[in-house]
Specification:
It comes from Oncorhynchus tshawytscha. By secondary structure, the protein is mainly alpha-helical. The chain has three helices and no strands. Helix 1 packs parallel to helix 3. The longest helix is centred in the last third of the chain and has 27 residues. The radius of gyration is 15 Å and the shape is elongated. The chain starts with a helix and ends in a 10-residue tail after the last helix. About 5% of the residues are buried. The mean pLDDT is about 90.
């Protein structure tokens, strides 16, 4: 099944939304930057099999981000000066 542009954009939005939920400033900015960089780097991919593979990898990363956000919320840390 070929991935549509709507699926790619939906995954991008979900990854950005979940990444912005990290309680730690450093993890949050790192995750947001990684998501943006990965999508920019693969912008020109047109092979349907490769796009599907990248989408599956993105979905796996989304699940991982959700788990890490949940774990991060269990153990609150002090806010950095940048956040304050």
């Amino acid at each position: 099944m070929a991935a549509s542009t709507a699926q790619v954009l939906s995954l991008y939005r979900k990854l950005m939304k979940e990444s912005s939920k990290f309680p730690s400033y450093n993890y949050r900015t790192y995750a947001l930057r990684r998501v943006q960089d990965a999508f920019r780097a693969n912008r020109s991919v047109e092979d349907p099999k490769m796009v599907e593979q990248l989408l599956n990898q993105g979905r796996d990363n989304l699940d991982m981000i959700r788990r890490q956000v949940a774990i991060g919320k269990m153990y609150p840390t002090q806010k950095t000066i940048v956040e304050g």
